[in-house]
Automatic annotation (TrEMBL):
Organism: Berkelbacteria bacterium GW2011_GWA2_35_9
Keywords associated with the record: Membrane, Transmembrane, Transmembrane helix
Keyword match RNA-binding: no
PROSITE patterns, per database record: PROKAR_NTER_METHYL (PS00409)
SUPFAM superfamilies in the cross-refs: Pili subunits
Statement: the UniProt record of this protein carries the keyword Transmembrane: yes
Domain of life per record: Bacteria
Source lineage: Bacteria, Candidatus Berkelbacteria
Family annotation (InterPro entries): N_methyl_site, Pilin-like
Transmembrane segments annotated in the record for this chain: 7-31
Pfam families the record matches: N_methyl
Name of the molecule in the record: Uncharacterized protein
Length: 130
């Protein structure tokens, strides 16, 4: 008479662990949480630059077309014009989600204002021009 043992062999266990590891790797690549977090921060940056541009335009409208002092052809940090914009035109001047770089504002030779987010991630360029 043969005795039958109940259980799994080592080979069967290794095959199942290998399959689970492959599936876990595929899921991690598909989800890519770091890219999703970067995209979320970029969405915040897009909102912030639009809000800053809107505040600058509102300031110019209230001041006979004069933009806040400090805006020039060379990009300047938004913090340099913060006293002109906050709290009248926006509750507070937004800062970059990572806090590493400040948003910049510049004016070209034709008088257009550009607000940019130099800290954008995923090789994106975030800027708005009015």
């Amino acid at each position: 008479m043969f005795k039958t043992r109940k259980g799994f062999t080592l080979i069967e266990l290794l095959v199942v662990i290998g399959i689970i590891a492959i599936l876990a790797g595929i899921v991690l690549v598909a989800v890519n949480p770091s890219r999703n977090f970067a995209s979320s921060r970029n969405a915040t940056r897009e909102h912030d630059v639009s809000q800053i541009l809107s505040a600058v335009v509102q300031y110019a409208t209230d001041n006979d077309g004069t933009y806040p002092s400090g805006i020039s052809a060379t990009p300047v940090n938004v913090s340099t014009i913060a006293t002109d914009l906050a709290p009248t035109y926006m509750p507070s001047v937004p800062t970059d989600p990572k806090g590493e770089v400040d948003y910049t504002v510049s004016q070209d030779t034709e008088g257009r204002i550009t607000v940019s987010a130099p800290g954008a991630e995923n090789n994106e360029t975030i800027s708005v021009t009015q």
